[in-house]
Task: structure prediction
Amino acid sequence: MSKIKKIPSKYQPKGFKIIYEDDALIVGNKAAGYLTVGAKWEKVNTVQHALDMYVRKGNSKSHKVVYVVHRLDQHTSGLLIFAKTEEAQTRLKDDWKNTQKTYFSVVHGHLSQKSGMFESYLFEDDKYIVRVTQDPAQGKWAQTAYTIVKEVPKFSLVKIDLLTGRKNQIRVHFADAGHPVVGDERYGQNTTRYPFMALHSKAISFNHPMNRERLTFETELPEHFYQLIGR
Result:
């Protein structure tokens, strides 16, 4: 299976730095502020659309597209996988339980326990806000494991192992615990505004859809994290 060489920056899709590509998949680092896929209010300025253009290599007659495997919230940065064939997409999704995802976040305040797990059911209300419930008939089970990496007077740097993949899961769990993600205007309920949201998908490990080789990728934390917690 052929792998690409390093892609010059001028050919990198907007909002998405490709770090690995072969015949079956593309792995890259999404910038904060970009949608993974189209929404009602935005169809073109998305990572998926940029990658569709990328795989067509400037050929206006090409119908090549990429296939979505998973998503990141618009203001979350970090690692994303896209498939280049429907078969690869199906295999990745069918094997998703064996994918390990590690996030880092800067949250408000200091948690009483330096490591632990949030467990609850999550449901989405009619205003598209995800909420915590203990009623299994109302929501879907969600588990978020965390470890405190560093504390500064106002914030904590947290390593997060995402054990389930519910919508807005990390943001909702930390907000419900009283320690919302810095810059999260939807769930944060904090009067101080930040020009970014401090949530980053830092590492991902998964089985290659075609040859089953275990692949692991890791990225650096965004610069705005260090503005909050120092070096």
